[in-house]
Amino acid sequence: MNCRVKICGITNLEDALQAVEAGADALGFVFYDKSPRYITPEQANAIVAQLPPFVTPVALFVNADSTLVEAVVAGSTRWTLQFHGDETPEECQRYGQPYFKAIRMKPDVDLLLEAGRFENATAILLDAYKPGVPGGTGETFDWHLIPANLPKPLILAGGLTVENVSHAVSSVQPYAVDVSGGVEKEKGQKDPLKVTQFINGAKRG
After folding, report:
1. Active site residues
2. Mean pLDDT lowest for which of 57-71, 121-135, 153-167?
3. What region holds the N-(5'phosphoribosyl) anthranilate isomerase (PRAI) domain (predicted)?
4. Counted domains in the chain
5. Among 90, 37, 77, which residue's Cα sits nearest to residue 60?
6. pLDDT for res 169
7. Rounded to whole angstroms, how far apart are CA atoms 162 and 61?
8. Quick one: average pLDDT of 17-38?
9. What single DSSP character describes residue 202?
10. What is the mean pLDDT of the chain?
11. Which domain holds residue 136?
């Protein structure tokens, strides 16, 4: 299976278009103001307006106010939403947009139960758990904890890099992989060479 790739934490048009040129299937935009990769709805929608077809823009929220989500989706019909906080299934569904639910791999998490709760999600994204940090930890988790019978397409995140992505894809066989810090030259700025190498590594598996 061809593993899809999402390059997350896009903050500028140059990085977005370079990632698309390198073969990215989706681009992530972070609407969480505590993140160094934060972008405003206006800035993000200006970038999305210049993306070619067949590239999915993904809007990442962490316990966001509904007015912020609505401001983002009002700017484009192309958005898929990614909820990375403590949102309920009802909160995720209220916008009528396709969405992913991110689940951080806490020691006691029941992935099958969580996937069942979010039955309307188009995919489940698994990320490393670090207390007080909703994502972008740069850390991996034990991939053996992922059940083989997860009832949703799996997006694997958490500490992925050019060096480990091929192993991750061959070991986990996820629907997609998601990277942000692992392909940056500094926070919020992508490294074109790393982006290309990461995508090539993921697609080779």
Report:
1. 8, 127
2. 121-135
3. 5-200
4. 1
5. 37
6. 96
7. 26
8. 97
9. H
10. 94
11. 4-204
Q: Which amino acid would we find at residue 116?
A: G
| pLDDT at site 205 | 63
Look up the pTM and report it.
0.94
Give the C-alpha separation, 150 to 163, whole Å: 26
Output 10 or 136, whichever has higher pLDDT. Answer: 10
- Amino acid occupying residue 135: G
β partners of residue 26:
6, 56
- Reduced to 3 states (helix: H, G, I; strand: E, B; else coil), residue 194 is helix
Q: Given this model, what pLDDT does residue 72 score?
A: 98
> Which CATH number does the domain housing residue 67 bear?
3.20.20.70
Cβ atoms of 70 and 63 within 8 Å: the answer is no
- CA dist 39 and 30 (Å) reads 6
Amino acid at site 190: K
Cβ 1 vs Cβ 25: under 8 Å: no
Is it the case that residue 195 has pLDDT exceeding 60? yes
The CA distance from 127 to 112, in Å, is 15
